[in-house]
Amino acid sequence: MNILPAEKSTLADLSKFQRINVIGSSGSGKSTFAKNLAAALQLPCYEMDELFWQADWVESTDEEFLPKVEHVVEQPQWILDGNYSRTLSIKLNRAELLIWIDLPFLTTTYQVTQRAIKRSFSKQELWPGTGNRESLKKSFLAKDSIILWSITHYHATRKKYEHLMNSGAYEDIAFLRLSSRSQIARLLNSKPLKLPVHHRYS
Questions:
Q1: Cα–Cα distance between 106 and 71 in angstroms, integer?
Q2: Which H or E run includes 4?
């Protein structure tokens, strides 16, 4: 992979990419980042959790989920927010850029906990029409708690993406690793390229 420098990359640099997958541990802030990046680059943004979860927290089967992911990545432009290891080969067949939000463990744990508490009290519906909302019981006491998931899968997720970044595979895909809030803020606050650019898949 072509590794981009985190401290020097700007929105202008990212403007040449039309298909971007934002990855990272649960609670890293990748959804917020993906939406902000999509707005800056004027690209459509898709959340993989919205593609996966059905009403009342029913999980999609692979037969239901994978075609949705395939449909998204077949489009000429997208920012796709999410991991889902079983979709990696589907995404990498079309992605031009992977952006890994790799914040420290304590930062990620704090963020996922803070988010769960906020959503539990606001009763925010996570994806329109699903009725799916977080609660204190689901966030802190359930066996599928998102906080527990974030804590127990943090190191495995990090190891997986470090291996992918350093594997030498997918030479046509660029890789950007953002490891601090300051790097994220600096990138999003940079100036996007306003002139149209040529894309290698156009």
A1: 36
A2: strand 2-4
The pair of structure tokens assigned to 170 is: 């997918």
Helix and strand numbers, DSSP H then E, in the chain: 9, 8
What's the pLDDT at 193? Answer: 67
Domain residue limits, the chain: 2-104+155-188
Quick one: fold of 2-104+155-188?
Rossmann fold (3.40.50)
The stretches in the chain having pLDDT less than 50 are 195, 197-202
Could you read off the pLDDT of 110-130 as tens digits, one per residue? 999 999 999 889 998 999 889
pLDDT score at 194: 57
Q: What local confidence, expressed as pLDDT, does residue 144 receive?
A: 80
How far apart CA 69 and CA 91 sit, in angstroms, is 8
User: Alpha carbon 40 to chain centroid distance?
Assistant: 16
Q: Tell me, rounded to whole angstroms, the distance of Cα 57 from its chain centroid.
A: 20
Q: How far apart are CA 41 and CA 169, in angstroms?
A: 27
- Contact between 147 and 112 under an 8 Å Cβ cutoff? The reply is yes
Cβ-contact 103, 182 below 8 angstroms:
no
Q: From CA 93, how far away is CA 70, in angstroms rounded?
A: 10
Identify the residue whose tokens are 């204190």.
136
State whether residue 126 is helix, strand or coil.
Answer: coil
